[in-house]
Design a protein that fits this description.
The protein is of the alpha+beta class. The protein has two helices and 15 strands. The protein has helices spanning 5-46, 68-81; strands at 101-107, 114-120, 123-129, 135-143, 146-151, 156-161, 165-172, 175-182, 195-203, 206-214, 220-226, 235-237, 247-250, 253-256, 258-260.
Length: 268
């Protein structure tokens, strides 16, 4: 049979058109898939994952909950870091070791001066002298085994006292003296006992005040203040105090010394 040439040509063209259509559709789908994959890869390469937010303190409401094993060391460290109370923070003075009346005398450390301290109830008197230029009287309160006394020209005494001794320092004439003075034990004797003695008088129209510190070994150190009522009285060496009579002779005037004692309350 003889084929009609125009019809054959038409059929072949139609078949070719269908093939082109199918091929185009497949290619388009493949290209779209490849483009999507490529875009995803590009996004993955250029947009790294955001770092995890740092964990906040345990008390922050927005913090991510942590496991019990992770939080245990934190609790332990916080407990270990907590300060402990100082051992002496609650320590108190043993009142049984604080006398209500006592006298103390001693030489100061590193010098020829001597110091006397007398406590009677809640009051205290102290004196320091070196036999010539240094002389200072101090008064103040006694409380819980501590003394804070003041005197003329910036003199000051800071002391802890007990039944056995009184220890601390005294400032006089711009110099700091440290000492530890044993308590004076009163024993019957014909001589004046160790301790602090004072005498006042008017000599040739000038008011003077003499002070003596008698040490347990019998040695005495004394000074005299001229114009005793002035803010900074000049001083000189005191005459020797007769411990049998309790008197001393100064510029033809007899000075009568009296004992300042916390034990008896005299001089307070």
């Amino acid at each position: 049979m003889k084929l009609n040439t125009p019809l054959v040509t038409l059929l072949v063209g139609a078949a070719l058109a269908v093939g082109v259509l199918v091929t185009s559709a497949v290619w388009s789908a493949s290209t779209s898939s490849a483009s999507a994959s490529s875009a995803a890869g590009a996004t993955s390469r250029t947009s790294p994952a955001a770092p995890a937010a740092p964990a906040g303190p345990a008390t922050t409401a927005t913090s991510a909950p942590s496991s019990s094993s992770a939080s245990a060391p934190v609790t332990s460290q916080a407990t270990a870091a907590a300060p402990t109370a100082a051992p002496g923070a609650t320590a108190s003075v043993n009142q049984a070791d604080v006398p209500s009346q006592a006298d103390y005398v001693a030489q100061v450390q590193g010098g020829g001066a001597a110091v006397a301290v007398s406590v009677h109830g809640d009051q205290a008197v102290a004196y320091i002298c070196n036999g010539h230029a240094v002389a200072a009287w101090l008064r103040g309160s006694a409380k819980n085994g501590k003394l804070d006394l003041t005197g003329k020209n910036g003199a000051r005494l800071m002391v802890d006292y007990r039944k056995a001794d009184a220890a601390g320092y005294i400032m006089a004439d711009g110099t700091k003296y440290t000492f530890s003075a044993p308590v004076v034990h009163r024993e019957p004797s014909e001589r004046r006992p160790p301790g602090l003695y004072e005498a006042t008088a008017t000599v040739h129209g000038v008011k003077i005040k003499a002070g003596w510190i008698v040490l347990p070994n019998g040695r005495q150190v004394g000074s005299v203040e001229y114009f005793a009522d002035s803010a900074i009285p000049p001083t000189a060496e005191a005459p020797v105090l007769d411990l049998a009579t309790g008197t001393a002779s100064y510029a033809g005037i007899t000075l009568v010394a009296s004992l300042i004692s916390g034990t008896t309350g005299s001089g307070f």
